[in-house]
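A common beginner's mistake is to predict each chain separately and then try to dock the pieces by hand. The better habit, illustrated here, is to supply every component at once so that their relative placement is modeled jointly.
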Amino acid sequence: EVQLVESGGGLVQPGGSLRLSCAASGFTFSDHYMDWVRQAPGKGLEWVGRTRNKANSYTTEYAASVKGRFTISRDDSKNSLYLQMNSLKTEDTAVYYCARASSSWEYYFDYWGQGTLVTVSS
Amino acid sequence: EIVMTQSPATLSVSPGERATLSCRASQSVSSNLAWYQQKPGQAPRLLIYGASTRATGIPARFSGSGSGTEFTLTISSLQSEDFAVYYCQQYNNWLGTFGQGTKVEIK
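With all components supplied together, the output reads:
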């Protein structure tokens, strides 16, 4: 059974940093592109960024709203995905989901974690 | 960036009735369109990909159609568990974008 479990959310002050983790199981993690998607309270879904797999050099992409502040990484030996968030703003407050891209050429998300809440507030 | 626009924002439907949700792309996304269902407090769940292919375990009452810029999700006979928010997502390019969602509520 595919499982994605996020952790690391919490309350942080504006300008602060936080690192989210996503533990994956039940599939060959190293084969898949992995993404982060967020959802502000009462709002819709916003794609945050992606890390490709080893075959595609672990390259990353980011939404304009987080580029330069957020960094996605992965550790295939630990079946884990990470999101390092720096220079946090109040508008970064959201539930952050890790999601598995179906394949390297189809970027829809066939599995999602349960999400972890990040609150940026003073 | 491809902008996805869903309509209506809210759809009031009685159980057993048909629901039709629309999603429009600002430029062609071919058939690279997915639909997700999200219930309160839960993560989104994949319903449809490739515009019309049901994901594993999705009931046949859910169907998707369309290509290019116009897409439709149809729920043929609404069950109590179908009242939720539905999102479309294009994945024609690496920057996958979501629509703003349609809330299907009980009439």
